[in-house]
Amino acid sequence: MEKLYNEALKAFHNAYAPYSKFHVGAAVLLKNGKIVSGANVENASYGLSNCAERTALFKVYALGYRQDDIVKMLVLADTSDPVSPCGACRQVMSELLNPDTPIILTNLKKDVKVYTIKELLPYSFKESDMDDAKK
Ligand code: THU
Fold first, then answer.
1. What would the pLDDT profile of 23-76 be if each residue is shown by its tens digit?
2. Dist. CA 51 → ligand 1 center (Å)
3. Hey, which of 20, 24, 113 would you mutate to test ligand 1's pocket, going by the most ligand atoms within 8 Å of its Cβ?
4. C-alpha 1 – ligand 1 centre gap (Å)
5. Cβ neighbours around 106 below 10 Å, total
6. Given ligand 1 and candidates 23, 51, 107, which is best to mutate, with the most ligand atoms within 8 Å of its CB?
7. Which region among 8-22, 58-72, 121-135 has the lowest average model confidence (pLDDT)?
8. pLDDT tens digit sequence for 42-57
9. Domain locations in the chain?
């Protein structure tokens, strides 16, 4: 947990958030022991900004790893309560993480809440929901 936290904290400091000034860091622990981190990266066209969670998970997948390679994920921000991932990130997590993978939500005070994506986004939209359209 300490190593994962510290990697997410480094990413938090690397966040590119000139518009919101709200920095977020995320880190994913893989079964081979490697840690892949990510930060939010904003854009003057605000809607093109990417959250820390998605940056980290997209990096994991771009490196060739898949959901079964992931042990857990940690997200932190300078919030009074453990940071709450946005809806878009929950949708992405629902596809890129296994349903029972621990998601550690925390902050700079190290308050911790641990959830799974099943809990954070019940009844999520998934590939099989499009099956009827393919008939
Ligand atoms: N943000 C994240 O990176 N993760 C979250 O869970 C919440 C929001 C970012 C997006 C944007 O750069 C800034 O925080 C303010 O919304």
1. 999 999 999 999 999 999 999 999 999 999 999 999 999 999 999 999 999 999
2. 5
3. 24
4. 22
5. 24
6. 51
7. 121-135
8. 999 999 999 999 999 9
9. 2-133
Edge-first strand order for the sheet with 70-77 is: 35-39, 24-30, 70-77, 103-107, 112-115
| 53 included as an active-site residue | yes
Nearest ligand 1 atom to the CA of 41 is: 12
- The 10 Å Cβ neighbour count of residue 32 is 8
Taking the model in full, what pTM does it have? 0.96
Half-sphere exposure of 128 (CA within 13 A, CB side): 3
Residue ranges of E strands in the chain: 24-30, 35-39, 70-77, 103-107, 112-115
Q: What angle do CA 91, 17, 19 make, to 5 degrees?
A: 105
**Given this model, what pLDDT does residue 7 score?**
98
The rounded distance, in Å, linking the Cα atoms of 23 and 77 is: 6
Range 2-133: architecture per CATH: 3-Layer(aba) Sandwich (3.40)
